[in-house]
Protein backbone atom coordinates (compact mmCIF):
# COMPACT_ATOMS: atom_id res chain seq x y z
CA UNK A 1 0.00 0.00 0.00
CA UNK A 2 1.75 3.18 -1.30
CA UNK A 3 2.53 5.80 1.34
CA UNK A 4 1.74 3.47 4.22
CA UNK A 5 4.28 1.59 6.35
CA UNK A 6 3.94 -0.78 9.28
CA UNK A 7 6.67 -1.65 11.74
CA UNK A 8 7.40 -3.26 15.09
CA UNK A 9 9.56 -1.51 17.63
CA UNK A 10 12.87 -3.07 18.64
CA UNK A 11 11.21 -5.25 21.32
CA UNK A 12 8.38 -6.25 19.00
CA UNK A 13 5.95 -5.07 21.63
CA UNK A 14 4.25 -2.19 19.73
CA UNK A 15 3.13 -1.68 16.11
CA UNK A 16 3.60 1.73 14.52
CA UNK A 17 1.63 2.97 11.51
CA UNK A 18 3.47 5.59 9.40
CA UNK A 19 1.56 7.42 6.65
CA UNK A 20 3.14 9.87 4.12
CA UNK A 21 0.20 11.98 2.75
CA UNK A 22 2.28 13.21 -0.20
CA UNK A 23 2.71 9.66 -1.52
CA UNK A 24 -0.96 8.75 -1.32
CA UNK A 25 -2.91 8.25 -4.53
CA UNK A 26 -6.29 8.46 -2.85
CA UNK A 27 -7.87 8.74 0.58
CA UNK A 28 -7.22 5.85 2.93
CA UNK A 29 -9.86 3.46 4.28
CA UNK A 30 -9.38 2.34 7.88
CA UNK A 31 -10.82 -1.09 6.98
CA UNK A 32 -8.27 -1.54 4.17
CA UNK A 33 -5.40 -0.49 6.42
CA UNK A 34 -6.53 -2.97 9.08
CA UNK A 35 -6.80 -5.70 6.45
CA UNK A 36 -3.29 -4.93 5.22
CA UNK A 37 -1.94 -5.11 8.77
CA UNK A 38 -3.48 -8.54 9.19
CA UNK A 39 -2.18 -9.79 5.85
CA UNK A 40 1.35 -8.81 6.80
CA UNK A 41 1.18 -10.72 10.09
CA UNK A 42 0.81 -7.84 12.50
CA UNK A 43 -2.44 -9.30 13.87
CA UNK A 44 -0.39 -11.47 16.23
CA UNK A 45 -0.74 -8.51 18.59
CA UNK A 46 -3.72 -6.41 19.54
CA UNK A 47 -4.68 -3.89 16.84
CA UNK A 48 -6.69 -0.84 17.82
CA UNK A 49 -9.34 -0.01 15.25
CA UNK A 50 -9.86 3.42 16.81
CA UNK A 51 -6.13 4.26 16.55
CA UNK A 52 -6.09 3.11 12.89
CA UNK A 53 -9.15 5.23 12.07
CA UNK A 54 -7.64 8.28 13.83
CA UNK A 55 -4.40 7.94 11.83
CA UNK A 56 -6.31 7.54 8.54
CA UNK A 57 -8.48 10.59 9.30
CA UNK A 58 -5.37 12.75 9.92
CA UNK A 59 -3.68 11.49 6.76
CA UNK A 60 -6.78 12.07 4.64
CA UNK A 61 -7.06 15.61 5.94
CA UNK A 62 -3.43 16.33 4.99
CA UNK A 63 -4.01 14.66 1.59
CA UNK A 64 -6.96 16.93 0.89
CA UNK A 65 -5.10 20.09 1.90
CA UNK A 66 -2.07 19.06 -0.21
CA UNK A 67 0.15 19.32 2.85
CA UNK A 68 2.85 16.76 2.10
CA UNK A 69 5.42 18.09 4.53
CA UNK A 70 4.06 16.16 7.51
CA UNK A 71 3.91 12.48 8.24
CA UNK A 72 1.31 10.74 10.41
CA UNK A 73 2.89 8.41 12.93
CA UNK A 74 0.51 6.51 15.21
CA UNK A 75 0.90 3.51 17.53
CA UNK A 76 -1.93 1.22 16.43
CA UNK A 77 -1.00 -2.08 18.04
CA UNK A 78 0.52 -3.56 21.15
CA UNK A 79 1.32 -6.96 22.54
CA UNK A 80 -1.03 -7.54 25.45
CA UNK A 81 -0.20 -9.99 28.19
CA UNK A 82 -2.73 -11.79 30.38
CA UNK A 83 -4.60 -9.49 32.76
CA UNK A 84 -5.48 -10.92 36.17
CA UNK A 85 -8.21 -9.75 38.55
CA UNK A 86 -9.64 -11.35 41.66
CA UNK A 87 -13.14 -11.55 43.11
CA UNK A 88 -14.08 -12.78 46.59
CA UNK A 89 -17.59 -13.95 47.47
CA UNK A 90 -19.61 -12.07 50.06
CA UNK A 91 -19.20 -14.81 52.65
CA UNK A 92 -15.43 -14.93 52.04
CA UNK A 93 -15.64 -18.68 51.44
CA UNK A 94 -14.71 -18.60 47.74
CA UNK A 95 -12.24 -16.64 45.65
CA UNK A 96 -12.24 -16.35 41.87
CA UNK A 97 -9.63 -15.28 39.34
CA UNK A 98 -10.77 -13.38 36.25
CA UNK A 99 -8.22 -13.70 33.45
CA UNK A 100 -8.28 -11.75 30.19
CA UNK A 101 -6.86 -13.95 27.45
CA UNK A 102 -3.58 -12.52 26.03
CA UNK A 103 -3.27 -11.06 22.54
CA UNK A 104 0.22 -12.02 21.46
CA UNK A 105 1.38 -11.81 25.06
CA UNK A 106 2.31 -14.36 27.67
CA UNK A 107 0.34 -16.48 30.10
CA UNK A 108 1.44 -16.20 33.73
CA UNK A 109 2.65 -19.25 35.59
CA UNK A 110 0.38 -20.82 38.18
CA UNK A 111 2.84 -19.93 40.93
CA UNK A 112 2.70 -16.27 39.86
CA UNK A 113 -1.10 -16.19 40.13
CA UNK A 114 -0.83 -17.91 43.52
CA UNK A 115 1.52 -15.16 44.72
CA UNK A 116 -0.73 -12.44 43.26
CA UNK A 117 -3.71 -13.97 45.07
CA UNK A 118 -1.80 -13.88 48.34
CA UNK A 119 -0.97 -10.21 47.76
CA UNK A 120 -4.69 -9.58 47.27
CA UNK A 121 -5.57 -11.09 50.62
CA UNK A 122 -6.39 -14.64 49.44
CA UNK A 123 -4.23 -16.61 51.85
CA UNK A 124 -5.85 -20.02 52.42
CA UNK A 125 -7.57 -22.65 50.35
CA UNK A 126 -5.80 -21.74 47.10
CA UNK A 127 -5.60 -24.76 44.82
CA UNK A 128 -2.68 -24.89 42.40
CA UNK A 129 -4.53 -27.51 40.32
CA UNK A 130 -7.53 -25.24 39.97
CA UNK A 131 -5.26 -22.42 38.80
CA UNK A 132 -3.61 -24.66 36.20
CA UNK A 133 -7.01 -25.79 34.92
CA UNK A 134 -8.03 -22.13 34.60
CA UNK A 135 -4.84 -21.33 32.66
CA UNK A 136 -5.59 -24.21 30.30
CA UNK A 137 -8.98 -22.67 29.58
CA UNK A 138 -7.40 -19.25 28.99
CA UNK A 139 -4.87 -20.72 26.56
CA UNK A 140 -7.73 -21.95 24.38
CA UNK A 141 -9.89 -18.82 24.70
CA UNK A 142 -10.25 -16.06 22.14
CA UNK A 143 -7.78 -13.17 22.66
CA UNK A 144 -9.32 -10.50 24.84
CA UNK A 145 -12.09 -12.72 26.23
CA UNK A 146 -12.63 -13.04 29.98
CA UNK A 147 -12.32 -16.40 31.70
CA UNK A 148 -13.36 -16.76 35.33
CA UNK A 149 -12.77 -19.69 37.64
CA UNK A 150 -12.72 -20.54 41.33
CA UNK A 151 -9.18 -20.80 42.63
CA UNK A 152 -9.69 -20.88 46.40
CA UNK A 153 -12.20 -22.45 48.76
CA UNK A 154 -12.70 -21.90 52.43
CA UNK A 155 -13.50 -24.75 54.76
CA UNK A 156 -16.79 -24.37 56.65
CA UNK A 157 -16.65 -25.37 60.30
CA UNK A 158 -18.11 -28.76 61.20
CA UNK A 159 -19.92 -28.76 64.49
CA UNK A 160 -19.36 -31.64 66.83
CA UNK A 161 -21.85 -34.49 66.88
CA UNK A 162 -24.19 -34.84 69.79
CA UNK A 163 -23.47 -37.31 72.53
CA UNK A 164 -24.05 -40.93 71.58
CA UNK A 165 -25.67 -43.72 73.51
CA UNK A 166 -23.83 -47.05 73.32
CA UNK A 167 -25.65 -50.12 74.65
CA UNK A 168 -23.31 -52.36 76.63
CA UNK A 169 -25.54 -55.44 76.22
CA UNK A 170 -27.20 -56.75 73.04
CA UNK A 171 -30.93 -57.01 72.44
CA UNK A 172 -32.23 -60.54 72.32
CA UNK A 173 -33.44 -60.09 68.72
CA UNK A 174 -29.98 -58.95 67.62
CA UNK A 175 -28.46 -62.01 69.29
CA UNK A 176 -30.58 -64.55 67.40
CA UNK A 177 -29.94 -62.83 64.08
CA UNK A 178 -26.18 -63.27 64.53
CA UNK A 179 -25.29 -66.97 65.00
CA UNK A 180 -22.11 -67.61 66.94
CA UNK A 181 -18.86 -68.24 65.04
CA UNK A 182 -17.29 -71.69 65.28
CA UNK A 183 -14.14 -70.83 63.30
CA UNK A 184 -12.98 -67.90 61.24
CA UNK A 185 -15.10 -69.00 58.26
CA UNK A 186 -17.97 -70.98 59.80
CA UNK A 187 -20.90 -70.20 62.07
CA UNK A 188 -23.06 -72.53 64.11
CA UNK A 189 -26.70 -71.82 63.26
CA UNK A 190 -27.79 -73.80 66.33
CA UNK A 191 -25.62 -71.84 68.74
CA UNK A 192 -27.24 -68.46 69.23
CA UNK A 193 -25.24 -67.54 72.32
CA UNK A 194 -26.41 -67.23 75.88
CA UNK A 195 -29.72 -65.60 76.71
CA UNK A 196 -28.87 -62.11 77.93
CA UNK A 197 -30.05 -61.46 81.47
CA UNK A 198 -28.34 -58.95 83.71
CA UNK A 199 -28.05 -58.69 87.45
CA UNK A 200 -28.98 -55.65 89.49
CA UNK A 201 -26.25 -53.03 89.26
CA UNK A 202 -24.98 -54.23 85.87
CA UNK A 203 -23.82 -51.58 83.39
CA UNK A 204 -26.23 -51.56 80.44
CA UNK A 205 -25.61 -48.27 78.57
CA UNK A 206 -22.97 -45.58 78.35
CA UNK A 207 -23.34 -42.06 77.01
CA UNK A 208 -20.26 -40.96 75.07
CA UNK A 209 -19.17 -37.33 75.13
CA UNK A 210 -20.20 -35.11 72.19
CA UNK A 211 -17.65 -34.34 69.51
CA UNK A 212 -15.59 -31.15 69.53
CA UNK A 213 -16.10 -30.58 65.82
CA UNK A 214 -13.57 -29.16 63.41
CA UNK A 215 -12.66 -25.51 62.92
CA UNK A 216 -12.92 -24.02 59.46
CA UNK A 217 -11.41 -21.05 57.69
CA UNK A 218 -12.23 -18.52 54.98
CA UNK A 219 -10.05 -17.56 52.03
CA UNK A 220 -8.57 -14.66 54.01
CA UNK A 221 -7.18 -17.18 56.50
CA UNK A 222 -9.54 -16.28 59.33
CA UNK A 223 -10.41 -19.20 61.61
CA UNK A 224 -14.11 -20.10 61.75
CA UNK A 225 -14.69 -21.76 65.12
CA UNK A 226 -16.89 -24.85 65.40
CA UNK A 227 -19.42 -25.65 68.09
CA UNK A 228 -19.12 -28.51 70.51
CA UNK A 229 -21.97 -31.01 70.15
CA UNK A 230 -24.92 -31.09 72.54
CA UNK A 231 -25.33 -33.43 75.44
CA UNK A 232 -28.47 -35.40 74.64
CA UNK A 233 -30.29 -36.17 77.88
CA UNK A 234 -30.58 -39.79 78.89
CA UNK A 235 -34.09 -41.23 78.89
CA UNK A 236 -34.22 -43.85 81.59
CA UNK A 237 -36.57 -46.74 81.03
CA UNK A 238 -38.03 -49.01 83.66
CA UNK A 239 -35.55 -51.00 85.69
CA UNK A 240 -32.64 -48.58 85.11
CA UNK A 241 -30.97 -45.67 86.87
CA UNK A 242 -27.92 -43.45 86.55
CA UNK A 243 -24.76 -44.73 88.15
CA UNK A 244 -23.81 -43.10 91.47
CA UNK A 245 -20.22 -42.48 90.34
CA UNK A 246 -20.76 -41.68 86.64
CA UNK A 247 -23.57 -39.52 85.28
CA UNK A 248 -22.99 -40.95 81.77
CA UNK A 249 -23.48 -44.57 82.82
CA UNK A 250 -26.84 -46.34 83.08
CA UNK A 251 -27.09 -49.38 85.33
CA UNK A 252 -29.78 -51.92 85.98
CA UNK A 253 -31.74 -51.62 89.20
CA UNK A 254 -33.25 -55.10 88.91
CA UNK A 255 -32.27 -58.48 87.56
CA UNK A 256 -33.88 -58.96 84.20
CA UNK A 257 -33.68 -58.78 80.41
CA UNK A 258 -32.27 -55.56 78.89
CA UNK A 259 -33.78 -53.98 75.80
CA UNK A 260 -32.68 -50.86 73.92
CA UNK A 261 -35.25 -49.25 71.65
CA UNK A 262 -35.89 -45.67 70.46
CA UNK A 263 -32.97 -44.30 72.51
CA UNK A 264 -34.38 -45.78 75.71
CA UNK A 265 -32.70 -48.57 77.64
CA UNK A 266 -34.95 -50.57 79.90
CA UNK A 267 -34.55 -53.74 81.90
CA UNK A 268 -37.68 -55.82 82.10
CA UNK A 269 -38.34 -57.87 85.14
CA UNK A 270 -37.94 -61.34 83.71
CA UNK A 271 -39.86 -64.47 84.55
CA UNK A 272 -37.69 -67.51 83.82
CA UNK A 273 -39.00 -71.05 83.56
CA UNK A 274 -37.82 -74.34 82.10
CA UNK A 275 -40.90 -74.81 79.92
CA UNK A 276 -44.61 -74.05 79.69
CA UNK A 277 -46.91 -77.05 79.98
CA UNK A 278 -49.81 -78.38 81.98
CA UNK A 279 -47.51 -78.63 84.98
CA UNK A 280 -46.65 -74.90 85.01
CA UNK A 281 -49.96 -73.58 83.69
CA UNK A 282 -50.47 -70.49 81.58
CA UNK A 283 -48.12 -67.51 82.06
CA UNK A 284 -49.24 -63.89 82.22
CA UNK A 285 -46.46 -61.53 83.32
CA UNK A 286 -45.99 -57.76 83.52
CA UNK A 287 -42.34 -57.94 82.43
CA UNK A 288 -40.49 -60.22 80.03
CA UNK A 289 -40.75 -63.98 79.88
CA UNK A 290 -37.86 -66.34 79.21
CA UNK A 291 -38.75 -69.95 78.56
CA UNK A 292 -35.72 -72.25 78.56
CA UNK A 293 -37.66 -75.07 76.97
CA UNK A 294 -40.76 -75.76 74.90
CA UNK A 295 -44.24 -74.27 74.98
CA UNK A 296 -46.58 -77.22 74.58
CA UNK A 297 -50.01 -77.60 73.04
CA UNK A 298 -52.84 -75.26 74.09
CA UNK A 299 -50.60 -73.30 76.49
CA UNK A 300 -50.74 -69.48 76.71
CA UNK A 301 -47.86 -67.08 77.33
CA UNK A 302 -48.55 -63.33 77.66
CA UNK A 303 -46.03 -60.63 78.57
CA UNK A 304 -45.84 -56.84 78.67
CA UNK A 305 -42.20 -57.04 77.58
CA UNK A 306 -40.52 -59.60 75.29
CA UNK A 307 -41.15 -63.32 75.10
CA UNK A 308 -38.13 -65.53 74.39
CA UNK A 309 -38.68 -69.23 73.91
CA UNK A 310 -35.37 -71.06 73.87
CA UNK A 311 -37.04 -74.12 72.37
CA UNK A 312 -40.15 -75.05 70.37
CA UNK A 313 -43.76 -73.86 70.44
CA UNK A 314 -46.57 -76.19 69.34
CA UNK A 315 -50.21 -75.12 68.96
CA UNK A 316 -49.73 -72.46 71.62
CA UNK A 317 -50.76 -68.82 72.00
CA UNK A 318 -47.87 -66.41 72.54
CA UNK A 319 -48.51 -62.70 72.99
CA UNK A 320 -46.07 -59.86 73.81
CA UNK A 321 -46.11 -56.09 73.73
CA UNK A 322 -42.44 -56.28 72.67
CA UNK A 323 -40.66 -58.87 70.52
CA UNK A 324 -41.34 -62.60 70.29
CA UNK A 325 -38.31 -64.85 69.76
CA UNK A 326 -38.64 -68.60 69.26
CA UNK A 327 -35.23 -70.10 68.65
CA UNK A 328 -36.29 -73.56 67.42
CA UNK A 329 -39.57 -72.91 65.61
CA UNK A 330 -43.33 -73.06 65.94
CA UNK A 331 -46.00 -75.33 64.49
CA UNK A 332 -49.76 -75.48 64.48
CA UNK A 333 -52.72 -76.75 62.48
CA UNK A 334 -55.32 -75.11 60.28
CA UNK A 335 -59.01 -75.67 60.60
CA UNK A 336 -60.90 -77.28 57.74
CA UNK A 337 -62.03 -73.88 56.39
CA UNK A 338 -58.49 -72.42 56.81
CA UNK A 339 -59.82 -69.52 58.92
CA UNK A 340 -58.46 -70.62 62.29
CA UNK A 341 -55.00 -71.68 63.41
CA UNK A 342 -54.12 -73.57 66.55
CA UNK A 343 -50.84 -71.68 67.00
CA UNK A 344 -50.96 -67.88 67.22
CA UNK A 345 -48.17 -65.37 67.74
CA UNK A 346 -48.89 -61.69 68.43
CA UNK A 347 -46.18 -59.08 68.98
CA UNK A 348 -46.15 -55.33 69.24
CA UNK A 349 -42.57 -55.44 67.95
CA UNK A 350 -40.81 -57.95 65.73
CA UNK A 351 -41.02 -61.74 65.54
CA UNK A 352 -38.19 -64.20 65.01
CA UNK A 353 -38.50 -67.96 64.64
CA UNK A 354 -36.34 -70.62 63.04
CA UNK A 355 -39.18 -72.16 61.05
CA UNK A 356 -42.94 -71.94 61.09
CA UNK A 357 -45.91 -73.92 59.83
CA UNK A 358 -49.61 -73.53 60.49
CA UNK A 359 -49.21 -70.21 62.32
CA UNK A 360 -51.30 -67.09 62.66
CA UNK A 361 -48.75 -64.26 63.08
CA UNK A 362 -49.55 -60.61 63.78
CA UNK A 363 -46.66 -58.23 64.51
CA UNK A 364 -46.09 -54.50 64.39
CA UNK A 365 -42.47 -54.82 63.27
CA UNK A 366 -40.55 -57.21 61.02
CA UNK A 367 -40.89 -60.97 60.68
CA UNK A 368 -37.61 -62.91 60.45
CA UNK A 369 -37.73 -66.64 59.73
CA UNK A 370 -34.49 -68.59 59.75
CA UNK A 371 -35.36 -71.43 57.35
CA UNK A 372 -38.94 -71.95 56.21
CA UNK A 373 -42.43 -70.46 56.49
CA UNK A 374 -45.38 -72.45 55.15
CA UNK A 375 -49.20 -72.65 55.50
CA UNK A 376 -49.33 -69.52 57.64
CA UNK A 377 -51.38 -66.34 57.83
CA UNK A 378 -49.20 -63.30 58.43
CA UNK A 379 -49.96 -59.62 59.09
CA UNK A 380 -46.82 -57.57 59.61
CA UNK A 381 -46.12 -53.87 59.95
CA UNK A 382 -42.63 -54.24 58.50
CA UNK A 383 -40.78 -56.54 56.13
CA UNK A 384 -40.60 -60.33 55.91
CA UNK A 385 -37.22 -62.04 55.53
CA UNK A 386 -36.96 -65.83 55.22
CA UNK A 387 -33.33 -66.86 55.66
CA UNK A 388 -30.26 -65.16 57.06
CA UNK A 389 -30.68 -61.35 56.89
CA UNK A 390 -27.54 -60.73 54.85
CA UNK A 391 -28.46 -63.34 52.19
CA UNK A 392 -31.98 -64.78 52.57
CA UNK A 393 -32.16 -68.28 51.06
CA UNK A 394 -35.12 -69.77 52.98
CA UNK A 395 -38.37 -71.23 51.65
CA UNK A 396 -41.72 -69.43 51.58
CA UNK A 397 -44.91 -71.05 50.24
CA UNK A 398 -48.65 -71.64 50.80
CA UNK A 399 -49.19 -68.51 52.94
CA UNK A 400 -51.62 -65.60 53.15
CA UNK A 401 -49.49 -62.51 53.77
CA UNK A 402 -50.31 -58.86 54.41
CA UNK A 403 -47.08 -56.88 54.57
CA UNK A 404 -46.06 -53.24 54.87
CA UNK A 405 -42.56 -53.86 53.52
CA UNK A 406 -40.66 -56.05 51.06
CA UNK A 407 -40.94 -59.84 51.18
CA UNK A 408 -37.55 -61.52 50.64
CA UNK A 409 -36.79 -65.24 50.50
CA UNK A 410 -34.70 -67.76 48.59
CA UNK A 411 -37.41 -69.99 47.11
CA UNK A 412 -40.87 -68.45 46.76
CA UNK A 413 -43.76 -70.82 46.02
CA UNK A 414 -43.54 -74.56 45.53
CA UNK A 415 -43.31 -77.09 42.71
CA UNK A 416 -46.85 -78.23 43.51
CA UNK A 417 -48.13 -74.78 42.58
CA UNK A 418 -49.62 -74.17 46.04
CA UNK A 419 -51.07 -70.70 46.32
CA UNK A 420 -49.01 -67.94 47.95
CA UNK A 421 -50.79 -64.60 48.23
CA UNK A 422 -48.99 -61.41 49.21
CA UNK A 423 -51.07 -58.27 49.72
CA UNK A 424 -49.51 -54.82 50.25
CA UNK A 425 -52.86 -52.98 50.30
CA UNK A 426 -53.43 -52.61 54.05
CA UNK A 427 -50.53 -50.30 54.85
CA UNK A 428 -51.02 -48.31 51.65
CA UNK A 429 -54.72 -47.74 52.37
CA UNK A 430 -53.91 -46.66 55.93
CA UNK A 431 -51.46 -44.10 54.58
CA UNK A 432 -53.96 -42.95 51.97
CA UNK A 433 -56.78 -42.56 54.49
CA UNK A 434 -54.52 -40.65 56.86
CA UNK A 435 -53.36 -38.44 53.99
CA UNK A 436 -56.92 -37.75 52.79
CA UNK A 437 -58.14 -36.71 56.24
CA UNK A 438 -55.04 -34.56 56.73
CA UNK A 439 -55.50 -32.91 53.32
CA UNK A 440 -59.14 -32.11 54.16
CA UNK A 441 -58.08 -30.48 57.43
CA UNK A 442 -55.32 -28.63 55.57
CA UNK A 443 -57.82 -27.24 53.05
CA UNK A 444 -60.02 -25.94 55.87
CA UNK A 445 -57.14 -24.26 57.68
CA UNK A 446 -55.81 -22.83 54.42
CA UNK A 447 -59.21 -21.31 53.65
CA UNK A 448 -59.58 -19.92 57.17
CA UNK A 449 -56.10 -18.38 57.05
CA UNK A 450 -56.86 -16.70 53.72
CA UNK A 451 -60.12 -15.20 55.03
CA UNK A 452 -58.47 -14.00 58.22
CA UNK A 453 -55.63 -12.42 56.24
CA UNK A 454 -58.12 -10.51 54.08
CA UNK A 455 -59.88 -9.19 57.18
CA UNK A 456 -56.59 -8.07 58.74
CA UNK A 457 -55.67 -6.32 55.47
CA UNK A 458 -59.01 -4.47 55.54
CA UNK A 459 -58.39 -3.42 59.13
CA UNK A 460 -54.91 -2.16 58.24
CA UNK A 461 -56.44 0.11 55.58
CA UNK A 462 -58.74 1.76 58.12
CA UNK A 463 -58.27 4.05 61.07
CA UNK A 464 -58.65 1.94 64.20
CA UNK A 465 -59.77 3.56 67.46
CA UNK A 466 -57.22 3.41 70.23
CA UNK A 467 -59.59 1.41 72.39
CA UNK A 468 -59.53 -1.43 69.82
CA UNK A 469 -55.78 -1.48 69.11
CA UNK A 470 -55.16 -4.23 71.68
CA UNK A 471 -57.85 -6.38 70.08
CA UNK A 472 -56.28 -5.83 66.65
CA UNK A 473 -52.87 -6.84 68.00
CA UNK A 474 -54.39 -10.02 69.42
CA UNK A 475 -55.99 -10.79 66.05
CA UNK A 476 -52.67 -10.25 64.27
CA UNK A 477 -50.90 -12.55 66.73
CA UNK A 478 -53.56 -15.21 66.16
CA UNK A 479 -53.09 -14.85 62.38
CA UNK A 480 -49.34 -15.26 62.83
CA UNK A 481 -49.85 -18.45 64.84
CA UNK A 482 -52.32 -19.70 62.25
CA UNK A 483 -49.80 -19.00 59.48
CA UNK A 484 -47.09 -20.92 61.37
CA UNK A 485 -49.48 -23.84 61.82
CA UNK A 486 -50.31 -23.74 58.11
CA UNK A 487 -46.60 -23.78 57.19
CA UNK A 488 -46.03 -26.78 59.46
CA UNK A 489 -49.01 -28.61 57.98
CA UNK A 490 -47.83 -27.90 54.42
CA UNK A 491 -44.47 -29.50 55.25
CA UNK A 492 -46.23 -32.49 56.83
CA UNK A 493 -48.37 -32.87 53.72
CA UNK A 494 -45.20 -33.12 51.63
CA UNK A 495 -43.79 -35.72 54.07
CA UNK A 496 -46.96 -37.80 53.80
CA UNK A 497 -46.77 -37.72 50.01
CA UNK A 498 -43.16 -38.87 50.22
CA UNK A 499 -44.13 -41.64 52.67
CA UNK A 500 -46.77 -42.84 50.22
CA UNK A 501 -44.21 -42.91 47.41
CA UNK A 502 -41.67 -44.72 49.59
CA UNK A 503 -44.28 -47.33 50.53
CA UNK A 504 -44.92 -48.08 46.86
CA UNK A 505 -41.19 -48.38 46.24
CA UNK A 506 -40.86 -50.82 49.18
CA UNK A 507 -43.72 -53.02 47.93
CA UNK A 508 -41.75 -55.81 46.29
CA UNK A 509 -41.19 -59.55 46.28
CA UNK A 510 -37.64 -60.86 45.91
CA UNK A 511 -36.81 -64.51 45.21
CA UNK A 512 -33.07 -65.10 45.49
CA UNK A 513 -33.20 -68.68 44.16
CA UNK A 514 -36.49 -69.60 42.45
CA UNK A 515 -39.97 -68.20 41.91
CA UNK A 516 -42.62 -70.86 41.20
CA UNK A 517 -46.06 -70.57 39.67
CA UNK A 518 -49.09 -69.84 41.85
CA UNK A 519 -47.54 -66.78 43.54
CA UNK A 520 -49.60 -63.59 43.44
CA UNK A 521 -48.90 -60.06 44.67
CA UNK A 522 -51.49 -57.34 45.09
CA UNK A 523 -51.78 -53.64 45.80
CA UNK A 524 -55.48 -52.71 45.80
CA UNK A 525 -56.80 -53.44 42.28
CA UNK A 526 -53.34 -54.05 40.77
CA UNK A 527 -52.43 -57.73 40.65
CA UNK A 528 -49.61 -59.90 39.33
CA UNK A 529 -49.47 -63.69 39.26
CA UNK A 530 -46.70 -66.04 38.25
CA UNK A 531 -47.87 -68.54 35.64
CA UNK A 532 -44.58 -70.41 35.29
CA UNK A 533 -41.26 -70.97 37.01
CA UNK A 534 -38.70 -68.19 37.10
CA UNK A 535 -35.09 -68.11 38.19
CA UNK A 536 -33.91 -65.41 40.57
CA UNK A 537 -36.44 -62.63 40.18
CA UNK A 538 -37.91 -59.47 41.64
CA UNK A 539 -41.50 -58.28 41.35
CA UNK A 540 -41.86 -54.59 42.19
CA UNK A 541 -44.54 -51.89 41.95
CA UNK A 542 -43.64 -49.11 39.56
CA UNK A 543 -45.73 -46.48 37.74
CA UNK A 544 -48.99 -47.93 39.16
CA UNK A 545 -48.34 -51.43 37.89
CA UNK A 546 -46.44 -54.55 38.85
CA UNK A 547 -43.20 -55.24 37.02
CA UNK A 548 -41.24 -58.48 36.85
CA UNK A 549 -37.50 -58.41 36.28
CA UNK A 550 -34.83 -61.13 36.60
CA UNK A 551 -32.03 -60.76 39.13
CA UNK A 552 -28.58 -61.10 37.60
UniProtKB/TrEMBL annotation:
Alphabetically ordered keywords of this record: Coiled coil
Domain Flagellar Assembly Protein A N-terminal region: 85-262
Compositional bias per record (Basic and acidic residues), positions renumbered to this chain: 145-162
Pfam family, one: FapA_N
Coiled-coil stretches noted in the UniProt entry, renumbered to this chain: 428-462
InterPro entries, alphabetized: FapA, FapA_b_solenoid, FapA_N
Region (Disordered), start-end ranges: 145-165
Highest taxon of the lineage: Bacteria
Protein name: DUF342 domain-containing protein
